[in-house]
């Protein structure tokens, strides 16, 4: 980091990179928000904190929402692509649905296109552009403004704070409260679930930091020209971001102990205290705190990932942006080999331990924030 701050050349290269870089990171996020939500909210499910809900049409809730008389008007007021929302999900289902069922289903929905192909302001061009799947990026990420104490993790161009995830989380909570006040429990959970999506996205360190390690900057490729340099930077940043998410999925798929992280408090201690001590702080503020701790965790995560599988991720043939499997359907990374499976906890290499530790903090922060968000709703809807 010190070398970086002493080097105006590196800084100007970084500025130029971020003016040019654009890749579909927003596509991925936590790949499976349904599972993240379910794991994070299990304590709520096992209690009787939130009663179950029965499906009702949006139209019956619209008068209470005071945001338009039709679906189309409502979607326009929210600034979303209404045709991408499954408004009739659970229609025909007569038995009551548990709160966590509705919340976890709805938490996946913001990745289904409602935030895509919209004009979302001047910063959108730096966070995925205005067209296609990556155009939702600005609503699903937040980069804190540049901070000289963390020059690399907070670096992006322009250097101001960018991204709308905290304000979307706030908006969805407001909608949930309005629906609840009107007696429309089903829709209050639907909107709260949307909001959980943005909260969970901010628990992913790569959603809060554009650039977490100097290893991701391939200065030597500058000799091959600017385009080659941008392509290589994009490939490296993409590989690190995606490998983290694929590995998380891999571990969750096999029921690894890592899923405990969502429930138990391995989180950043100050963050946990700040959130749990104050359920009535503004939602936007709480989500901004999460973005800050995620941003601060990003360099540690990138370093742990680099030690664990840097060789694989930096290999010139490794390309995760098009997908995790090759043309034959074979995974591009053998995570079992990466994790030295079969090794006992005691004999686990320090690099693996370090990686798990960092991953646990990210997952645990996400769980703490998700529970805080639902509790904030409960507290305010009493
Ligand atoms: Zn997302």
What does this structure look like?
With 382 residues, this protein is an all-alpha fold. It has one domain. It is built from 15 helices and no strands. The radius of gyration is 21 Å and the shape is globular. The protein starts with a helix and ends with a helix. The chain binds zinc ion.
The termini sit apart by 48 Å
Total helices: the number is: 15
Please trace the helix and strand order, writing H or E for each element: HHHHHHHHHHHHHHH
Number of strands: 0
| Ligand species | zinc ion
Show the helix and strand layout:
Layout: H1 2-5, H2 8-20, H3 33-40, H4 42-46, H5 58-65, H6 71-78, H7 99-108, H8 137-140, H9 165-181, H10 185-201, H11 226-253, H12 269-276, H13 283-314, H14 335-338, H15 350-381
Helix pairs in contact: 3-7, 3-15, 5-9, 7-10, 9-10, 9-13, 9-15, 10-15, 11-13, 12-15, 13-15
Bound molecules: zinc ion.
The site of zinc ion has 6 residues, from helix 10.
Features:
single chain, binds zinc ion, mainly alpha, 52% helix, 382 residues, disordered N terminus
Short description, anyone?
This protein is mainly α and 382 residues long. The protein has helices at 2-5, 8-20, 33-40, 42-46, 58-65, 71-78, 99-108, 137-140, 165-181, 185-201, 226-253, 269-276, 283-314, 335-338, 350-381.
């Amino acid at each position: 980091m010190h070398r970086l701050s002493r080097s105006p050349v590196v800084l100007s290269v970084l500025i130029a990179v971020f003016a040019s870089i654009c890749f579909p990171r927003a596509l991925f996020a936590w790949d499976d928000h349904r599972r993240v939500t379910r794991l994070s909210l299990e304590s709520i499910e096992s209690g009787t904190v939130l009663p179950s809900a029965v499906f009702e049409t949006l139209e019956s809730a619209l008068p209470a929402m005071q945001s338009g008389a039709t679906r189309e008007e409502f979607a326009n007021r929210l600034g979303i692509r209404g045709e991408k929302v499954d408004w009739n999900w659970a229609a025909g289902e007569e038995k009551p649905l548990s709160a966590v069922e509705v919340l976890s289903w709805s938490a996946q929905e913001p990745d289904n296109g409602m935030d895509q192909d919209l004009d979302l302001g001047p910063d959108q061009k730096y966070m995925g552009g205005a067209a296609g799947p990556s155009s939702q990026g600005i609503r699903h990420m937040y980069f804190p403004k540049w901070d000289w104490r963390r020059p690399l993790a907070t670096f992006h161009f322009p250097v101001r704070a960018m991204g709308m995830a905290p304000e979307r989380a706030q908006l969805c909570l407001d909608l949930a409260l309005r629906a609840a006040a009107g007696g429309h429990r089903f829709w209050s959970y639907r909107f709260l679930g949307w909001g959980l999506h943005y909260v969970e996205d901010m628990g992913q360190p790569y959603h809060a930091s554009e650039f977490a390690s100097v290893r991701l900057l391939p200065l030597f490729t500058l000799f091959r020209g600017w385009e080659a340099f941008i392509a290589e930077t994009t490939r490296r940043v993409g590989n690190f971001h995606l490998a983290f998410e694929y590995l998380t999925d891999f571990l969750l798929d096999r029921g690894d102990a890592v899923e405990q992280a969502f429930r138990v408090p391995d989180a950043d201690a100050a963050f946990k205290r700040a959130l749990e001590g104050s359920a009535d702080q503004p939602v936007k503020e709480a989500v901004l705190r999460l973005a800050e701790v995620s941003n601060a965790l990003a360099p540690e995560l990138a370093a742990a990932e680099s030690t664990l599988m840097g060789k694989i991720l930096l290999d010139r043939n490794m390309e995760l942006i098009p997908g995790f499997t090759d043309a034959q359907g074979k995974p591009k990374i053998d995570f079992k080999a990466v994790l030295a499976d079969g090794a006992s906890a005691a004999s686990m290499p320090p690099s693996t331990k370090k990686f798990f530790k960092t991953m646990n903090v990210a997952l645990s922060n996400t769980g703490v924030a998700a529970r805080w968000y639902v509790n904030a709703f409960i507290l305010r809807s009493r």
